[in-house]
Design brief:
The chain is an alpha/beta fold. The chain has one domain: Class I glutamine amidotransferase (GATase) domain (Rossmann fold), CATH 3.40.50. Helix 1 links the parallel strand 1 and strand 2.
């Protein structure tokens, strides 16, 4: 297949604005692991969305939009306007029957909140307290059936790190848009947050960090700048509890090995099937 078909092209939309993080490297690691499983070439390109106002075009197959710092409800940013135009372009492209090969998008944390706000699916607001750590996430009935959570239990463990949240889903808008809630916060500080949505057949997203693994999070926790931020915002107890959970990381290992890999591999399969059909 490597010689017969064009490579699958994957975009990483970096929304971290230069802030120290483990998210981008984790996405590269997941893609690299899939390269060893799939008999097809994969090209990866990274766009600095917030730092350099770089927005990808429609000449890619899969788009992974990262988390990031700051407010997802600031409407005065140039990059944000361009980002939303890109989201709308993707939607219009996928809705067109003339475009048989579709574009696949996964929204993570900050990007997830932006998508919820842009599509008017939920209320996005600042939390009364920063959410950070490894927490249980509850799958809905729809979530239990969705491909990205295949083989997982009703309650999964995931890495959470956010100052904002998407809550109070607009059920009428969800139905009109064709979106379904896949997971919710098990124990919320205020209203339980929405933790995963299937926006449509080609778009999904999580408010938690499915790309996080034990090694990457351990590095982040021990990085001087990150550790100081965690301690100042959450205290010694949260830092210690998270470190303890990392010593028994089976929960987040399962999430890391399941959610994004299954989304990416399913997207690749669909893209390759189109190419196979056309080749025949």
């Amino acid at each position: 297949m490597k010689n017969r078909y064009k490579p699958i092209r994957i975009v990483i939309l970096d929304l971290y604005e230069g802030v120290v993080n483990q998210g981008i490297d984790a996405l590269y690691r997941i893609i690299d692991s899939i390269k060893h499983l799939k008999d097809i070439e994969i090209e990866v390109k990274r766009f600095e969305v917030r730092k350099n106002n770089e927005i990808p075009g429609l000449d890619f197959d899969i788009y992974l939009s990262s988390g990031g710092p700051g407010s997802p409800i600031d409407t005065n940013q140039i990059w944000e306007k361009d980002y939303f135009e890109w989201v709308d372009d993707i939607c219009r492209y996928n809705e067109s029957v003339e475009n048989e090969s579709k574009k696949f998008v996964f929204f993570i944390c900050h990007s997830f909140q932006l998508a919820c706000r842009h599509f008017n699916l939920a209320h996005v607001s600042k939390r009364s307290k920063n959410a950070f750590g490894i927490y249980p996430i509850s799958l809905t009935m729809e979530g239990k059936k969705d491909l990205i959570f295949s083989g997982m239990s009703d309650e999964i463990w995931a890495v959470d790190s956010r100052d904002y949240q998407a809550t109070l889903p607009d059920m009428a808008q969800l139905q009109k848009f064709g979106a379904t809630i896949l997971a919710t916060e098990t124990v919320g500080i205020q209203e339980n947050a929405i933790m995963a949505i299937r926006f449509n057949r080609y778009m999904a997203g999580t408010q938690f960090h499915p790309e996080a693994n034990d090694e990457g999070l351990m590095r982040y926790m021990n990085h001087p700048e990150s550790k100081l931020k965690i301690l100042s915002e959450n205290g010694e107890q949260v830092w210690a509890e998270t470190m303890e959970k990392l010593r028994n990381p089976e929960g987040i290992k399962k999430t890391y090995a399941t959610v994004l890999p299954l989304f990416i591999m399913d997207s690749i399969d669909q893209s390759c099937q189109i190419k196979v059909d056309h080749d025949l």
